[in-house]
Amino acid sequence: MSLRTRLAISFAAFAATAVLVVAITGHMTTARALRFEIDRTLDGYSERLENPDGAFLTALCGIRDTGAETHAGPIPELPGSRVQCIDSEGERVLSITSGALPLSRVDRALARSGGESRFSTVSTDGGTYRVLTVAVPGGGAVQLARSLAEVDRALDALRLRSLLIGFFVIVAGGVFGWLTAVFITRPLAVLTSTAEQIAHTGDLTTPIGARRDDEVGRLAVAFGVMISALSQSRREQQQLGQDAGHELRTPLTSLRANIDTLSRHPNLDPETRSRVVEDLDSEARELTALTEELLNLVTEKHDSEVAHTCDLAELLERAVDRASRRSDHQYSLVAEPFLLEAREGRVLRAVGNLLENAAKFSPAGSAIEIRESGGVITVRDHGVGFTPSDIPSVFRRFYRSDSARALPGSGLGLAIVAQVAEECGGAVSAQNAEDGGAILTLMLTGKSQTGVVRNDAVKGK
Question: What is the Rg, in whole angstroms, of the alpha carbon atoms belonging to the chain?
């Protein structure tokens, strides 16, 4: 069953429930009001029985006159009513107008002993009546009755009108529900059609329609953002595959060439053979490093680490301490406390890559200076620096300058730094120092924190 059909049925069911409640309430209220009006009329007639001299009662029933006559037909003083007289023994003595009214034990008791007047509803061959039984002073009782036929006719007419009105209301509710469902689900149908088209064709550039300002519009916008993210991810994967294929081709080609040399020339002199083996080892190491960097680039972006608030200065201390154990360079750190909402492991990875890059292109034992203020990290080395043509590309994946090709590395370290900066809403930049060396800057967003500025000098071990 479609969503439109379910909504139409729901509206019709709601309308039917409302009609049923209104009809039942209206019927009960009308019946109660009509019966109350009849009771009031009968109660007004009963006041005539309280005539002080008893003349009206004597003329009506003859209870106090042994020569009373039997009346038939309507009574002018009590229009529309039937009258039945009961003696003090609880027996019917006279029924004015045709047909007798049934007597209950309560009515007989009231005639014998007196008491408060009571209303009741009785059924006879002539129809249903509303009866008021009134005790007579001195014994006996009089029953005043009025037919409920008019009430029944009025209620029947009300039920018929309620059925007709209810039918049209239910139909109108179903039609309104269908039209509302069409209006609501039309953009959902567009989104569904678009999703099916994308699933069938794989074309993530398919435009997303259903632009509105309500929840459905927000869903369309979210769907469009998701498709854009998928499209961007696909482009990145394709570019990564192309770049990785290009970078892997060089070491693999060299490996194949060296292996072919060894297989073709088993009797190489020891010096040549040693050189070939060293080339194999170098290419294998480069291939291993490239594979590890590729895994880091792909997996760390989607790892399960949750972002939390951390102090950037403390992370820098840890990164510098780790780098100092791996090289003989002299690291100096000046950092201010700075609160950062980020994944700690990713930030440590980015800072570590900056320090590793500085150590790679600096003379052994030289100084590497790290400064941080307001979330802006600068790492300065005292190496050869960048050539002007290299600066725009140093953060690009797999990019390696001419001077770096002879050094180990994959060209992915600074690309990971740029990736982390993007995740944290920051940026990266590269420049040359005026007195030589390179300066790499990583800008992260967060909240500054007042505190003592730390100035640490760490010598490489």
Answer: 51
